[in-house]
Amino acid sequence: MADYQFDTITEAQALAYVAANDTLAFAPGTNASSITVLFIPAAGAARLG
Length: 49
Prior knowledge:
The chain is α+β, with helices and mostly antiparallel strands and 49 residues long. It has a domain at 3-27. The chain has one helix and two strands. The chain has a two-stranded parallel ribbon with strand order 1-2.
């Protein structure tokens, strides 16, 4: 089980994150409108559609 801070989590830590086991904490006062999430397609990923 690992504990991560959203504002300091590294790419490697994010890839290793398992929601069932790990926790991801946000800074006090943080709300959804101040969060940015980027989805980057994996190298070699197939595009469907």
